[in-house]
UniProtKB/TrEMBL annotation:
Protein's UniProt keywords contain Nucleotide-binding: yes
Domain PAS: start-end pairs: 47-96
First-tier enzyme category under EC: transferase
Molecular function as annotated in GO: ATP binding; photoreceptor activity; protein histidine kinase activity
Taxonomic source organism: Qipengyuania soli
Stretches the record annotates as Disordered: 1-21
Pfam families xref list: HWE_HK, PAS_9
Chain ranges of the PAC domain: 99-151
Protein name: histidine kinase
InterPro entries with a match to the protein in the record: HATPase_C_sf, PAC, PAS, PAS-assoc_C, PAS-like_dom_sf, Sig_transdc_His_kinase_HWE
Biased composition (Basic and acidic residues): 1-17
Kinase among keywords: yes
Record EC number: 2.7.13.3
Top-rank taxon, per record: Bacteria
């Protein structure tokens, strides 16, 4: 028997069921007019054929109504349709269960699309199975986005592995050169900077596919060796992202500040503390990072001069479009670093 989509027509399959009266008409009209692709099948006819397909279903698949009605939904399957979701559908029909699967389907023109198919039984008021309901949603774009994200994460992990190896090789070269030339102290100082760079990138590469890095994640990784017991440093921040290229700046700057605090500043005293705080991007497209030392030895401003580390970080910041302001308070340094977001 052929059914069209006008109100009341697909009720001919089961004239004794409860889909009658005004509520049944409203139900049918809603099914026909919704933008979600919907079809109904008749489990009492041979091969459970489609007896109703709304306009959205026809638009999604490219088939006309007369090409759909009376056929089993499997006509949308094709050469690359996986067997497992098909098996799940058959099992759900056999046991009258609700299921949701994603499967590759094909349109009339031969083009494929990923179909998130929701299948479930419809019962009348007496609990008797009347129809099977299927709603279809084209999730091809969602699948593509998932695939791109997985690919980006795989590349990030590979890049992380290679960068770790690269930093290890560079560190080894510096150590050997230092021993050969009798400049072990200078080599150790250079290696400390290399290790800080490595920590800056180590835990942030998985996030790099977005083009920006969460600042707090990098700060924690870089500074963790300087406060192993967690009692001499406070990290305060929520949000704030910087460009992937700026992470090297963050690594070097925080290393120089931490090294200075260990030798001369707050961390050279028993009760010295450092508070590192940061804020999300401001209206100027910048992120500010604050380094505040307290409880350290008294600062003699007249004895402070430019060091190698300061010169390196200042030059790199200028090149990268950032800046640093150093405020020498009586009991410690307050540095404010501005970074491009």
């Amino acid at each position: 028997m052929r059914f069209d989509t006008s109100p009341g027509r697909f009720r001919e399959a089961h004239p004794e069921d409860s889909f009658s009266g005004s509520s049944g008409v409203l139900f049918e009209q809603a099914m026909a007019q919704t933008r979600m692709a919907i079809c109904l099948t008749d489990p009492y006819q041979d091969d459970n054929p489609i007896i109703f397909a709304n306009r959205a279903f026809r638009a999604l698949t490219g088939y006309e109504e007369e090409e759909i009605i009376g056929r089993n939904c499997r006509f949308l399957q094709g050469p690359d349709t996986a067997r497992e979701p098909v098996r799940q559908l058959r099992s759900a029909i056999d046991t009258e269960e609700v299921t949701v699967v994603e499967m590759l389907n094909y349109r009339k023109d031969g083009s494929s699309f990923w179909n998130a198919l929701h299948l479930g039984p419809i019962y009348d008021n007496d609990g008797k199975l009347v129809y099977y309901f299927g709603s279809q949603w084209d999730v091809s774009d969602v699948r593509a986005a998932r695939s791109e994200e997985r690919h980006a994460r795989m590349l990030a992990r590979e890049l992380s592995h290679r960068m770790k190896n690269m930093f290890s090789v560079i560190s080894g070269i510096v150590n050997v050169t230092g021993r050969v030339r009798g400049i072990e102290a200078e080599a150790a100082e250079i290696n400390a900077r290399i290790q800080a760079l490595g920590r800056a990138y180590e835990t942030t590469l998985d996030d790099a596919s977005s083009g920006t890095i969460e600042l707090g994640q990098a700060v924690r990784s870089i500074l963790s060796p300087y406060d192993a017991d967690g009692h001499r440093m406070d990290l305060v921040g929520n949000g704030g992202r910087v460009s992937f290229a700026a992470i090297s700046l963050v690594g070097l700057i925080l290393h120089e500040l931490a090294a200075n605090a260990t030798k001369y500043g707050a961390w050279s005293a028993d009760n010295g503390r450092v508070t590192v705080s940061w804020l999300p991007e401001d209206e100027n497209g910048q992120v500010k990072l604050s380094w505040l030392e307290t409880g350290g030895p008294p600062v003699d401003v007249s004895m402070i001069g430019p060091g190698t580390g300061s010169a390196i970080t200042d030059r790199m910041l200028r090149t990268g479009g950032g800046a640093i302001e150093r405020i020498w308070n009586r009991n410690g340094l307050h540095a404010v670093v501005t970074l491009p977001a």
